[in-house]
Specification:
nine-stranded mixed beta sheet; 522 residues; Rossmann fold; Luciferase, domain 3; globular; 3 domains
Amino acid sequence: MIDNEAKEALVAVLKEPFGSFPGVLRWWSQAQPTAIAMVDDNREVAWGELLGEVERLAARLLETGLERGQSVAILGTSTVNYALVFLAAVRAGGVAAPLTTSASPEQLQGMAKDSGARHLFIDAGKAAELGPDFMPDLIRVPLEAIDTWMAPPGSTAPDFEPAPSDPFNIIYSSGTTGVPKGIVHSHQMRWLQFASTALSYTEAGLPVRTLTSTPLYSNTTMVGFLPALLAGGTMRVMGKFDCGRWLGHAQEERTTLTMLVPVQYQRLMDYPGFDEHDLSSLILKYCTSAPFSPELKREVLSRMPGGLVEIYSMTEGGVVCLLQAHEFPDKLHTVGRPAPGSEMKVLNDEDEEVPPGIPGNLIGRSQTMMSGYKNRPDKTNEAQYVDADGGVWMRMGDIGRVDEDGFVELVGRAKDMIISGGFNIYPSDLEAELERESDVIEAAVVGIASRAWGETPVGFVVLGEDARGIDAILGSVNARLGKTQRLSALHAIDEMPRSHIGKLLKTDLRELALTNAQEGSV
């Protein structure tokens, strides 16, 4: 515990409109050097050690050619070492660029090149899977051996004071073929996003013991990771989510804060030993990244202690909606109301604002919006809406309506995006892969509900003469896709259902997919 004078000094820093993440971490390392900062299955790091290792890694990054604003690619399972490299990249004036482990080798290579990284930190599992020829031009460092790679003990990096517009990290969108888009977040964006959360923890005297079980390459994880560090807390890093281990950690370590995606909440609710664990230390639980059914919210509220906050936004930014589910049990069908500093509008297909209660395309803006897509100004422009006054909004990609109390209800997703296990899957990308097969004349992909993943993609194809069996086509396509993209089922049909003007009726396909699933075909 820090004394009142030190607490007041920290509160003053966190209230500033802009500040330095490395500066706050240095403050905590000096204020509580022996307190545990991070722990995983293999090691724990006290705050004083954290500062020393981050400085030594940052110094070595600069010695080996890292330039200001240059990316540092990180690829592997989440560990303390992974988190230290992330922080060291930022401390050195570089950009943390965590890569999606479930992506295909071709996608990973594209992401690494797109990021402009000189360094690649990779764990043994991914190194063995990808082989020694993966990105040989980069400086490859085993994540398990950063202690022998970093600069000698006592080394420090030169002072770095970030400018608000300096890039902080790049988060690559998951679930797309080709090269996923790199979403660039600035130091200013991350400060505005998370310093206020850390401030609320600090002012309330909240003990910050977080349990992180989503991967560090996901923006979802940053909601638990970065505010906990700014608040001087302790973070448990889980490399892979497992219900029994999660419950054991939460009970034994008296976890107070956690972030889970809906499929993880569902698995916990279904776990046979759930009710045998003491979770009374939980104060706040967060959820984001995928549709969260009212029924599941209700079950979580009734069986897990502490408040439940659903966050609706995008990695790109835009409007941020918050639902304090424990305070509004009659609004569980919504994603809450725009948070302070966020604005939202509902537009029709002609970009005209519609009245409350009418569904339309959601756009939003806030102080926490991306700088843009890395190397993709065209895609950045597509994602934005510019109003008559020149104000920039983000197209949220969802269809929703606002009720009489200002709560936002999602009624569909633009472009039929599928969210499986918290990750975005774009049907058009999977359709393109299916149509690469010589047997396939036409393809369509829809998402259906899945208890295991939230949603799962199902494909439909019109086949040519003498086509291979459907299983052979499915195996060929899935072999080219990232793990989170793979089709759970593929069906051959005689022709695609279409409207009288020739529009593909994906609603009909979705009904057929659900029927097949109920009959045991999925």
